[in-house]
């Protein structure tokens, strides 16, 4: 099966953002793209079959969520995340970031405070800002090589900045951290106590490596359901970002009503037929593919970790417990943070994400996407080696 993931697919002649924006974003049309979070793997055979069937047998008119889609989400979330969902708890969106924007508009008012981690996935701050709310950040502290939340700081910010919403990347992008049950309880208890709505973005929550258990706050205490909105999509795990389908899980009817109002106001209440069919085929028919994917990704992750251990042991990195993103500290290069991306392009022709985009505290970090065939990853690591060697010597 791993041969499927070994196949190198030429994406340069498609409209892939990852491959076709290289010149515009990185100034090099030949850079090896290991940046934005999509995978260079073909979709599962079951997804492709379902989409072929759709084209052959149906008409692409306006659609509403099918029963099969709803059931596939309900079963997947029950099996993997111990969540009991009713059909009425589900709402749809073209994307998780779009859903985040709707939540910000629906559940907070202009100029109110929204708290996010530093560092965290870049659109968390931009979505809040572009909707005229105030962004506050709470630092993630590195302890024993991993990010930990600073609960005193969070509580202080809740009080001082009258925070109305906390947006959590669960698990954490870019650090790949899976928050433990205890950590989620501490955070969500604080949210409940201070009447802060918790948005739990769980888009990476099915990209989990062996020996790690992942939790959703709503599965931990019944009372959390009043305060938490969960956002999810099959798009990261099954490589469907272009199919444009994500979903909200909302238990609180009042929050759900507010979200639906903004969905109507912004005409975001329709659903993509392609996304619906692909998501259903992913959740209900692609379990074997998913299992094999995780085995392949785990080997890729270990390869990157072994590379740094062997070649550059001075480099600090966070071995991800989830996601296909490798977060490493490039401080040993002694390059100013705003020159890091450029240096990786100039010396190695490799496109990585700069840590500065995720927060002040991670300016010296770089993020590498290892969801690609092994031969491509090996080429990428050679290029990184060239960068480190040419800057050091
Ligand atoms: C934490 C997180 N949320 C959301 C997204 C994007 O979601 P969508 O493409 O559905 O808007 C990403 C993409 O990498 C992500 O890492």
Describe what this molecule looks like in 3D.
It is a single chain. The chain folds into two domains: 2-44 and 287-388, Alpha-Beta Complex (Aspartate Aminotransferase, domain 1), CATH 3.90.1150.10; 61-284, Aspartate Aminotransferase, domain 2 (3-Layer(aba) Sandwich). A hairpin with a 6-residue loop joins strand 10 and strand 11 (325-329). The chain has helices at 2-6, 17-20, 22-26, 45-57, 67-81, 96-107, 123-130, 151-160, 181-193, 253-265, 273-285, 287-311, 340-348, 374-392, and strands at 32-33, 90-93, 113-118, 134-143, 146-149, 163-169, 197-201, 228-232, 246-250, 317-318, 325-329, 350-351, 353-354, 365-369. The chain contains 14 helices and 14 strands. It binds pyridoxal-5'-phosphate (PLP). Pyridoxal-5'-phosphate (PLP) binds at residues 37, 95-97, 121, 169, 173, 201, 203, 233, 235, 241, 246.
Helix percent reads 40-55%
Low-confidence stretches: none
**What name goes with the CATH superfamily of the largest domain?**
Type I PLP-dependent aspartate aminotransferase-like (Major domain)
Tally of DSSP β-strands: 14
Q: How many independent structural domains?
A: 2
Portion of residues in beta strands equals 15-25%
The sequence of SSEs as H and E is HHHEHHEHEHEEHEHEEEHHHEEHEEEH
Strand order of the biggest β-sheet: 2-9-8-7-6-3-4-5
Q: What structural class do helix, strand and pairing data support? A: alpha/beta
For the CA atoms, what is the radius of gyration? 21 Å
List the bound ligands: pyridoxal-5'-phosphate
CATH architecture of the largest domain: 3-Layer(aba) Sandwich
Please give the count of helices. 14
From the N-terminal CA to the C-terminal CA, the straight-line distance is 42 Å
CATH topology of the largest domain: Aspartate Aminotransferase, domain 2
Largest sheet: 8 strands, mixed
Q: Give the overall form.
A: globular
CATH class assignment of the largest domain: Alpha Beta
| Mean of pLDDT | 96
């Amino acid at each position: 099966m791993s041969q499927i993931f070994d196949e190198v697919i030429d994406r340069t002649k498609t409209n892939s953002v990852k491959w076709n924006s290289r010149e515009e974003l990185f100034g090099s049309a030949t850079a090896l793209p290991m940046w934005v979070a999509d995978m260079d793997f073909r979709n599962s055979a079951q997804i492709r079959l379902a989409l072929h069937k759709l084209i052959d047998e149906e008409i692409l008119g306006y659609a509403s969520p099918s029963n099969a889609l709803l059931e596939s989400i309900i079963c997947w979330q029950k099996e993997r995340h111990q969540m009991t969902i009713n059909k009425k708890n589900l709402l749809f969106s073209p994307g998780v970031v779009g859903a985040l924007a709707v939540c910000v508009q629906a559940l907070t008012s202009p100029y109110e405070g929204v708290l996010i981690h530093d560092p965290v996935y870049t659109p968390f701050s931009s979505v809040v800002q572009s909707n005229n709310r105030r962004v506050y950040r709470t630092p993630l502290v590195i302890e024993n090589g991993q990010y930990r939340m600073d609960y005193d700081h969070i509580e202080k910010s809740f009080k001082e900045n009258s925070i109305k919403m906390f947006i959590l990347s669960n698990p954490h992008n870019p650090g790949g951290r899976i928050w433990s049950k205890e950590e989620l309880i501490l955070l969500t208890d604080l949210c409940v106590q201070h009447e802060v709505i918790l948005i739990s973005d769980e888009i990476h929550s099915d990209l989990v490596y062996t020996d790690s258990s992942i939790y959703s706050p709503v599965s931990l205490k019944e009372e959390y359901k009043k305060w938490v909105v969960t956002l999810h999509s099959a798009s990261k795990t099954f490589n469907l970002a272009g199919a444009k389908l994500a979903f909200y899980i909302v238990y609180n009817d009042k929050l759900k009503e507010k979200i639906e109002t903004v969905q109507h106001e912004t005409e975001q209440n329709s659903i993509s037929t392609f996304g619906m069919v692909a998501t259903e085929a992913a959740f209900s028919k692609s379990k074997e593919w998913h299992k094999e994917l995780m085995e392949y990704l785990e080997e890729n992750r270990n390869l990157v970790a072994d590379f740094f251990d062997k070649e550059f042991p001075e480099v600090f990195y966070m071995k991800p417990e989830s996601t296909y993103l490798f977060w490493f500290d490039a401080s040993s290069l002694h390059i100013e943070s705003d020159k890091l991306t450029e240096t990786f392009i100039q010396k190695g022709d490799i496109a990585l994400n700069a840590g500065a985009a995720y927060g002040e505290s991670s300016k010296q970090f770089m993020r590498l996407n290892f969801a690609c065939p092994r031969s491509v990853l090996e080429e990428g690591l050679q290029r990184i080696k060239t960068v480190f060697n040419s800057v050091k010597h």
